């Protein structure tokens, strides 16, 4: 299965970055409510396991807060391959917005 991957440097303490991203899934749901449905999140240490549906396609991934960056990786169904760039840029933009 293809994957998507995004890294965003955060320039703050790991704890501060983690705190700012605590409600990541809720913010995505708020900003993209017309496109994103069935949002799930589960924090396990510094890793957020998330999932959502967009245009009827299920997407799952992990967001990890590292010392210097936020790293997101997930599986992308073949039916969503044409949206890979949009998914990655949206994740990058949303993470950047939450970190500032």
From TrEMBL:
Which top-level group of life is the source organism from? Bacteria
Family matches, as InterPro entries: PHA_gran_rgn
UniProt-recorded name of the protein: Putative polyhydroxyalkanoic acid system protein
What species is this protein from?
Posidoniimonas polymericola
